[in-house]
Amino acid sequence: MSAGLVILAVIAIAIVGFFVGRSRALNSAGGDIRQLHSLPGYYGQAVFLFSAVPALLVTAVWLILQPMMIENRISDMILPTDIAEGSSLELIMADVRRISSGLDTAVVAGALSEPEIETLNLDNTDVRGVLAGVGVAVASDIKPNVLDASVAYRAKTAAARGYMAVVSIAIALVGFAVALSLTKPDYRARNVSEAAIKSLLVLSSFVAILTTIGIIASLIFETSNFFRMYPAKDFFFNLTWNPQFTGGSDLGIIPLLWGTLYVSFVALVFAVPIGLFVAIYLSEYASSKVRSIVKPAVEVLAGIPTIVYGLFALITVGPLLRDYFAQPLGLGQSSSSVLTAGLVMGIMLIPFVSSLSDDVINAVPQSMRDGSYGLGATQSETVKQVILPAALPGIVGAIILAASRAIGETMIVVMGAGAAAKLSLNPLEAMTTITVKIVSQLTGDTEFASPETLVAFALGLSLFVITLGLNVLALYIVRKYREQYE
Amino acid sequence: RDQVQIAGSSTVLPYATIVAEAFGENFDFPTPVVEGGGSGAGRKKMCEGVGPNTIDIANSSSRIKQSDIDLCATNGVSEIMEVRFGYDGIVFASDIDGPSFGFTPADWFNALAAQVVVDGKLVANPNKQWADVNADLAAQDILAFIPGTKHGTREVFDKKVLEAGCKATGALDLLGDKKACHALRTDGVSVDIDGDYTETLARLDANKNAIGVFGLSFYQNNTDKLVVATMDNVVPSTETVASGEYPVSRPLFFYVKKAHLGVIPGLQEYVEFFVSDDMAGPDGPLAEYGLVSDPELSATQDMVANGTPMQPLN
Amino acid sequence: MTDVTPTTSILTVDDRTRRRNVAEKRFRTYGVIAITLAMLALVGLMTSIFSGGLPAFKQTFITLDVYLDPAKLDKDGSSDLEKIRKVSTFGYAPLIKKALEEQLAKPELAVEGLKSKDAAKMISKEGAAEMRRFVLANPDMIGETVSFKFLASGRIDGYYKGRVTMQSAERDKNVSPQQLQFADKLKDAGLLKTSFNWGFLTRADASENRPEAAGLGVAILGSVYMMVIVLFLALPIGVAASIYLEEFAPKNWFTDLVEVNISNLAAVPSIVFGILGLAIFINFAGLPQSAPIVGGLVLTLMTLPTIIIATRASLKAVPPSIRDAALGVGASKMQAVFHHVLPLAAPGILTGTIIGLAQALGETAPLLLIGMVAFVREYPSAPPEGFFDPAAALPVQVYNWTQRADPAFVERASGAIIVLLVFLLLMNTIAIILRRRFERRW
Amino acid sequence: MYDAPQLGNAMDQTTTKISARNVQVHYGDTHAIKDVNVDIDAKTVTAFIGPSGCGKSTFLRCINRMNDTIDICRVTGDILIDGEDIYDKRVDPVQLRAKVGMVFQKPNPFPKSIYDNVAYGPRIHGLAKNKSELDEIVEKSLRRGAIWDEVKDRLDAPGTGLSGGQQQRLCIARAVATEPEVLLMDEPCSALDPIATAQVEELIDELRSQFSVVIVTHSMQQAARVSQKTAFFHLGNLVEFGDTTQIFTNPQDERTQNYITGRIG
Amino acid sequence: MYDAPQLGNAMDQTTTKISARNVQVHYGDTHAIKDVNVDIDAKTVTAFIGPSGCGKSTFLRCINRMNDTIDICRVTGDILIDGEDIYDKRVDPVQLRAKVGMVFQKPNPFPKSIYDNVAYGPRIHGLAKNKSELDEIVEKSLRRGAIWDEVKDRLDAPGTGLSGGQQQRLCIARAVATEPEVLLMDEPCSALDPIATAQVEELIDELRSQFSVVIVTHSMQQAARVSQKTAFFHLGNLVEFGDTTQIFTNPQDERTQNYITGRIG
Ligand SMILES: Nc1ncnc2c1ncn2[C@@H]1O[C@H](COP(=O)(O)OP(=O)(O)OP(=O)(O)O)[C@@H](O)[C@H]1O
Ligand SMILES: Nc1ncnc2c1ncn2[C@@H]1O[C@H](COP(=O)(O)OP(=O)(O)OP(=O)(O)O)[C@@H](O)[C@H]1O
Ligand SMILES: [Mg+2]
Ligand SMILES: [Mg+2]
Ligand SMILES: O=P([O-])([O-])[O-]
What we know:
The complex is a heteropentamer, with 1 copy of chain A, 1 copy of chain B, 1 copy of chain C and 2 copies of chain D. Chain A is mainly alpha-helical. Chain A has helices spanning about 5-30, 40-75, 90-110, 115-120, 125-135, 145-180, 190-230, 230-235, 255-285, 290-305, 305-330, 340-365, 365-375, 380-410, 410-415, 435-440, 450-480; strands spanning about 240, 250. Chain A is about 75% helix and about 0% strand. Chain A has a two-stranded antiparallel sheet. In chain A, helix 1 runs parallel beside helix 6 (about 145-180). Chain B is of the alpha/beta class. In chain B, about 35% of the residues lie in helices and about 20% in strands. In chain B, strands 1, 2, 3, 4, 8, 9, 10, 11, 13 and 14 form a 10-stranded mixed beta sheet that branches. Chain C is mainly α. Chain C is built from 19 helices and 4 strands. Chain C has helices spanning about 15-55, 70-75, 80-85, 90-105, 115-120, 125-135, 155-160, 165-170, 175-190, 200, 215-250, 255-265, 270-285, 290-315, 320-330, 335-360, 365-370, 395-400, 410-440; strands at about 60-65, 145-150, 190-195, 375. Chains in contact: A-B, A-C, A-D, A-E, B-C, C-D, C-E, D-E. One magnesium ion binds near residues 56, 57 and 186 of chain D.
């Protein structure tokens, strides 16, 4: 029985359990729901959970542990002589796994039969050829011990699968029975099922934490490799960024960090006021008809691929700013500039600020507005002094979202602000950001194990830490400011 | 997995897609999946190991590095086949309505280097116009869009143009080190392009007086917008590159993971099809697109047929 | 004190009110300006996208009668399909050339100085492939003359869309004025027509040599698959996490940490999610390269913070008296949240979903590292197996096409953006309608 | 039970402050106010009484155009203040509301500090020249709202953290802080204990010397105590309007009689 | 302070339903309830009176643990219902609140239809087997809340579009629909006219035959009319607790006396 079938069987038992549990609860109360502690559906859910959760957990653990246990035993069959120079036991075990699953495929494809496999040896069969025939890749020629190990692995796996099916289904049935026996009118079924839902909610919020851990884990290894090749002091304090193809590069993060903060700042300077005013106008002034058209329309701005914005910056905005602004004022010659990228990115960020702010402004109770109007306040006074403070937490969330997006944006910056790292105050000069450099260093021609490529990981991790700091700061400020409300 | 998977150089990507498309049409195998991402990234991916969730072929616009081979070895990818299938020319072009140029490497060095030789001494680059560099050139402000330092094209530009110019102007003797010749001025006259040739083209569109660096094939598809500059009086074309007259060019490769040959359906056939005369020959579709066909193609075909793995780098 | 005359008339606006009203007007004007700016930007972008992309939805076709010459296709006359199969597309090209030669020979179509080799270039290289497919499907037609509707090559197509002109053709290495003249004559003869380009929506990508044959079929499927995954994972997980954090979690340093952490995840560049996806889903979990399942999972992780931040913000905005009312009649906290708070927070949740999905739909960078920014010509099969087949995605197609040398791809890229936006609107319509339903004031 | 009103000032000099002519209010299909005509005098306290849901709040909200904020609410007819039609196009509702203050039926303090709640009106109307003047206004208003003693030590605490009755008094303080000419109070004492009620009633009496006060109340005793005029509403109709003493001692309409004696609700 | 009453002797039939022992409540630094001990009998109506802000609502909310929802609120001491400590870990506050219903001081209808407002409790507690039973419950509850006639034609209209008094009665109907054993009513008649008030008082009287009712009121008359026991709170202290008649005719504490006679508020 394959793992998929076992899982399906368990779920089927649980679904049956739901209905049985529900009707049993009803019966136990003589059909009178009032006699029950919880609604009958909750009893059904409880039986479902008792049947499914332990069994599925056991299945999952089994699926993870089983290969480890079996491999532990099988790896004894591989002798040190079987391990070629430059290879390792792990690689051979990967082959063993691949061959054994390949044998399965071959059986399914009809290239081999079960009895054939039992007597399989390299003299009577071209195993590699057979496997290749069914599309299974094997790294190198198969050694006898490896083949034996694979056959044994396959047999053990099949046996273990069988045990697993029996155990899992048994657990499901036991859970089913236990839950049913618990199903009495005074059984707190709702609490059980709510506890289960709550643990689901908790698990969901762990996804975010796991993602963070995953990001750090996937960056830290190569970052440490980078710092082995390139001094950390130079990375953090060197004021130039000048990677060379052939090595000997200057890889200082400071100019990139400056560019990141500068471009994001400029983008927010455009996006936040415009977005906020759009939100205010839509929720407080506009008719519902205008609102129902404009709001989704503005949201389209968030859906236009950034490459379009990039081209817009490159072809339209950049030359415009250069010809009518930078050159006449003597501020520069460059058609790529922080201002170009910031302006265009600002457009993209408008809906991030406007839509969410509009929702939270709309959620401020009408009685707050009434209170203010009743005192003779104008609409704008009401907005500024009553509604915005009341909606502040949500608005901050919206701005954080926009700022985050600004920091993480690539395409617009490449095309709008250029690729040259520079430390300058002039917004009409070309600069670049950390994100741009992560992308460009990661995808290119230089060899992977060079500081020029690995620096991407260090940049990613540094940016992660820096934004973490900024977020802590933001939370602190919001908390402090928010304290006087609520 | 029943299709071939390929990744790597964006320079090789168009050729690989042309081959993949024709392969899918003419063979009973599914069309291979071809990815870009850059030569370095492609080789890294190939070296991640053996198995269906790793790629079969890495395209590369430069030769594989020893560090890549080592990485491959530690991950069990012991045998690699190196296939060189042609050359790529690198050209200098500007907006079609502007003046045309005839450069020498020395002109480029004098235009872009951080330090140039004036009266036998190294000074910070004072040149503002092309005419300052070479009186024969147009009196137009210097503005060059060159590939970013992550591009293989930049390596060729550094080696074949800057270093040659460095030597020709005598700066090499004063600088002492070849690498020092690569240092470019930072006053915004030389602009690195991290993106692709399309971005360079768009930038030329926004800055009509600039000169951009392109691949030969890209230029050939845009002859109505670009005017190409000669180098040492040689007009770039597939012929002049193939003959070696036009100096700025580089070989193109792809690397095949031998462990997957004969295992991934269609891999062997794809590799053979790629280097066949029908595709990579001087009259094939690749050449039509702009590939400079490899004069030694038949040797490559033999090597592929025999499955000869790559010898250690020397 | 006894004077009852009003202090001021309400019909005349006093100074201070006038000033306040000016401020009010100014404030309102800011709002109008903001909306106008946003709308102008939208209209500007839309105009450029549509003007650039609409031509992609039309395509020039050339109808030709081609003689399926047995001498070329079935050399030994055995009608053995295996042998016919051996004839590659290169073997079919001469037939097209021949057919064009015949046309060129007609006096009314003749163009001076046009070689038949160049005339053959006016037909897409896809033509040979189409013929080969036709012959393999109908081997008995060998020896007949069959009328084919071929795609015109990109340059000829561009001529009828204004991209190529006689002047530009002079300088263009890939097209000559003679070819254009011939095309005009074919048009007059009714053999060359322009019609709606269904192929753009259904075909797979094509190589650099035949932009006219490139379509979005695979990319649309890939995007649909990924969005299904994102929607079914990101929305429930995001909402569940927000509910826990906002309604149930004790307020302590740990929840603060999680909150900061989530805001921070929103700021992680999307390519880093690609690094994560490569490390975890492909290298660790062993999922295949270039597959929508991996793309969907990566985009899910990327979209989650957006949905969580939006959901939390709108949960916060629900007045506590609603929760009190529910708890007061004996609802559990869970019931109060699911029955009352969540519906009131729904508009914000949907906004988060709209923005999050928009972002996920348009994202390329993370796909770069998991092998989805690729040239894929095979359609993925139906789900669930299809989730594991290689596929492209709409933004990937846009990205790829903008990097190609042939200018015909630029137009296709804009066309693809239109498709992407339509896709986005379709996807969001439900959310937008739902959001309008849930919006209320109290 | 009823206390006789001891507020018998001479009422002959009074002039009409507010007059309503044929006022009709609809909420969508609900006809909430049916053709109401009434003249409310200056410097008097007018009480609106009537069973729950009869339209008292609705009519009250017409007087300072608070109904403008309810989408589905439609008002027809004229309401004149000092002879000027408040529904005239030239009228600025903001100015109107500054002149006609309101205390709502449900206390609705802003989610701000107690101080800021009260200071809000004076700030937007520029009633205080400086901080100390503002402090004075706030203190005076809170005193008039009979809540100063309870909150003087926690002016920085949020207004939403007060008890129900405290919130109600805070809202009264907030309304008087802007010194309106007409004060509309919708059940201002519903959550107040007798002493606080008495203090608010004292305030109302004090306000009457300069301003007009309209108060909605369910307490007949309160109406009798504080008002000079009483209007009785029933099912959207203004059934009877007259001197408070007359209404309570000698109602003309049967429905009024029934209501006062507790027979209809 | 007032201590746990030992006067159970006189009324041997009544059993204690709720007893509070040394209950203290803090809102952050504010000490809102100070060491309150009280025994509330089953099948009686107990009135809580006292000046605004004295802690009546706070104490009421302790009895069904609604204070759990206020972050800054800390409750110490024991409250027993039927002898079981409701702050015990094993107690499910949800079950508790199903048993101890509450009408809040500020009417807070759900932003749903009138029908759904009332049907919500019965639905989640499974009180109706089918739609028609539910309809019955809703009608009965709305009748008991004295609002049926006004809303029977618009059960689908939103509960938030009702007048203040209607909302209050809707909330009463919503609370009785779940048939709680104890009903806590925080000024349930503050926005009601005399007739509606009388109807609600009738309801309270009717409920008394089976359940316990605790009512907060500012109207001494109402307390006297409906309650058998009265508790007087002052500045967070339970000053006096006893038979209503005794409290109103012969208060033991000076403060009670002063409050009843209208001298402190
Ligand atoms: N959420 C809160 N945060 C802080 N303090 C509060 C909060 N709720 C009430 N208080 C304070 O606790 C005390 C008691 O309040 P409570 O609401 O119990 O009074 P009450 O007796 O119900 O008054 P009222 O008759 O006005 O409703 C008051 O001083 C009040 O300001
Ligand atoms: N926003 C609204 N939408 C629809 N109907 C409403 C709205 N507000 C009030 N009504 C209806 O209009 C009528 C009059 O309501 P109003 O609030 O004026 O009554 P009221 O006399 O103030 O009653 P109460 O003493 O209970 O506050 C009622 O039937 C009520 O249901
Ligand atoms: Mg009212
Ligand atoms: Mg209270
Ligand atoms: O993408 P490239 O590696 O060819 O620059």
